[in-house]
Amino acid sequence: MGILVIGSIAFDSVETPFGKRNEVLGGSATFFSLSARFFDTVSIVACVGEDFPGRMLAMLRSKGIGIDGVEVLKGRTFRWKARYGADMNIARTLATHLNVFSEFVPKIPAHLAGARTLFLANIDPSLQDDVLRQVRRPRLVACDTMNFWITHKRKALRRLIRKVDIILLNDSEAKQLSGEENLLKAAKAIRRMGPEIIVIKKGEHGVLLSTRGSHLLAPAYLLESIRDPTGAGDSFAGGMLGYLGRHRRIDEQAVRRSVIYGTIVASFAVEDFSVRRLLTLRKSDIVNRYRDFCRITRF
Ligand code: AMP
Question: What are the structural domains of the chain?
Answer without folding.
Answer: 3-297 (3.40.1190.20)
